[in-house]
């Protein structure tokens, strides 16, 4: 009976019924949207439509039916003389038949959340700790935490497995069919498809997938969207052995520089040289139509649905080469949508939450209006209608945005307290810190360079706390300051000063990040390095820095070692008392022997809102400590949190305000404080901190492809 059901005729019949039902349902959906008064009508729900079509089908035949239906798509399209289906009069409803099936299968195979109410729900009464916080004048935690706490009392969400468990063999067959499906260049479906086909992300399965994807590429049986996604995947891309894959992708769609850089990263010098040769072929092919036809890869069929036209090819190659050379051509102004969202979001922080000061919001409004003057009316309306601040609205109504510089901000109403002045609520500098220096001239950067060289000559190891800041209100972003903290002085290097030559920047950064005797201590410093590379893309040492260490990883090692002690509880009570009270941290280093209910998990993993896999449980437990952030670590290990008010401030303004100077300096200096605390606790356990520092893997990133040799 099963084999009879799985005949091509039955797969074709199910496909035909699916298309007809889609045309009917999507028409009803869009007509209902037209009658709706709200403009936020949402998108067609493929998950509910897939449930309607797939739920009546027996589970054991559904998986093979997926493959059969995908295989019958071309037969159906040929017999009905149409490749796209949807509701007449609603262009946005039209999709190709294979894309319709892809959306349905992925939606149906994703795990689902089901709310299970508690048997004895408790009333939302505040606990003792909540009452104490409220009595002290607090709000009993953030609104999000309170909301989550109340929801937990009512019940919990349980993750439900999909009906069909895809075997390795079935996943491979689906992958081969899905690779052919043409999708819009901006579609994100392959991110979901990769998880659905291989939720465990097992190395063996990814190895098999990589070989199949490479073979289908060589055979010309892959869409641009799939090829572009897997070229950008750091695991799969290693299976593409032919540098000509770049040219293959260019003849199918708008290949971008980031994908090419990932494709060529961590390859041999010969492979990277061949990649540049392929790019030269692409440049020559863009010169005239004859060269374009002559250079086309022979394995791409002329009828391939994604094959590009000559004019599109010219624009793609031109933009690609510019981006690979670091020649950003777009607007550096803040995106209008993000600007409006930021004005509202941080207005809430200023007027409602009271976590932002006037000077923070003033800076934001200034830099937004200087970049997008037409938003002046929007700013005034928000101030008047949302927050009732008529004085501020009157002030900004008088301003002339076209005459304002986004980084030179004039504001006399700023706090001028000494940045080193102690506070009662937040972490303070050690008394030995003498001064915070802003380095913004040629002489100052030379003096700093000489100081660093002098320290290296006098000391066996020089410990430096490092951090970088960048503005969220420009695009693309890049680091604007680099903080360096010694035990007695803190330096803030202005990375956008017109008084410092590019050669001086390059010389100093190269020395700082190349010198092994200088131990750079940061916290998750990878993103900071990325932002530094955005500003100094040809500084080779930023891609392969020496002795850049993460204090967060050091703390994870420390907590894990503490949990292994025979007298762990006594040691925690004497030296790290917060470990006793924090269940998240206590769980680190312990094995999890609990078994999962198969109906409440997918392959022993939890799944995010978009169907993306989260890390395995053991790893996620360790990561939770890091994910709590630097301020949390400071509060637990050093006694007080960091003041994060300036975290989202305008970091490219000059001069920096005193509160910005304090925030920036403390972000770097606390690295030394945390390191000293870890060193102290390690020594009490009989360990040398150096042996844990040496365990950290060095940061190694490939140089930009065209920095080694121009085209």
Automatic annotation (TrEMBL):
<feature type="compositionally biased region" description="Basic and acidic residues">
    <location>
        <begin position="120"/>
        <end position="136"/>
    </location>
</feature>
<feature type="region of interest" description="Disordered">
    <location>
        <begin position="590"/>
        <end position="615"/>
    </location>
</feature>
<dbReference type="InterPro" id="IPR012337">
    <property type="entry name" value="RNaseH-like_sf"/>
</dbReference>
<dbReference type="GO" id="GO:0006139">
    <property type="term" value="P:nucleobase-containing compound metabolic process"/>
</dbReference>
<dbReference type="InterPro" id="IPR036397">
    <property type="entry name" value="RNaseH_sf"/>
</dbReference>
<dbReference type="GO" id="GO:0008408">
    <property type="term" value="F:3'-5' exonuclease activity"/>
</dbReference>
<feature type="compositionally biased region" description="Basic residues">
    <location>
        <begin position="143"/>
        <end position="156"/>
    </location>
</feature>
<dbReference type="InterPro" id="IPR052408">
    <property type="entry name" value="Exonuclease_MUT-7-like"/>
</dbReference>
<dbReference type="Pfam" id="PF01612">
    <property type="entry name" value="DNA_pol_A_exo1"/>
</dbReference>
<feature type="domain" description="3'-5' exonuclease">
    <location>
        <begin position="620"/>
        <end position="677"/>
    </location>
</feature>
<protein>
    <recommendedName>
        <fullName>3'-5' exonuclease domain-containing protein</fullName>
    </recommendedName>
</protein>
<feature type="region of interest" description="Disordered">
    <location>
        <begin position="115"/>
        <end position="160"/>
    </location>
</feature>
<dbReference type="GO" id="GO:0003676">
    <property type="term" value="F:nucleic acid binding"/>
</dbReference>
<dbReference type="InterPro" id="IPR002562">
    <property type="entry name" value="3'-5'_exonuclease_dom"/>
</dbReference>
